[in-house]
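Morning, I've got a small favour to ask if you have a moment. Here's the protein in full, and shout if anything looks odd to you:
***
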Amino acid sequence: MATAEEIKARAREIMAQDLPEDYNPEMTDDEPLIVEGGVDSLGFIQVLTKLEAEFNAHVPDEEWWEVSSLNELADAIVRNVRD
């Protein structure tokens, strides 16, 4: 099982690769992705779905609507890993 730190690192890689013109590498893990991270809502969904696929997780819609930071995103993936 992946750790939250591994998931955050992979999320940063995805954002840098897929959203290079919007990604802010200096954002902290607690800052809102959509503001400080430079990620728009479509970009957020792209990152989320890639993480779900890579880490065999499924974050329910009602839960991911509450996710705003890298810390919250990683925690949601860890909580929702499929067996």
Q: What stands out?
A: The mean pLDDT is 91. Helices lie at 4-18, 41-54, 61-64, 70-79. The chain is about 50% helix and 0% strand. The radius of gyration is 11 Å.
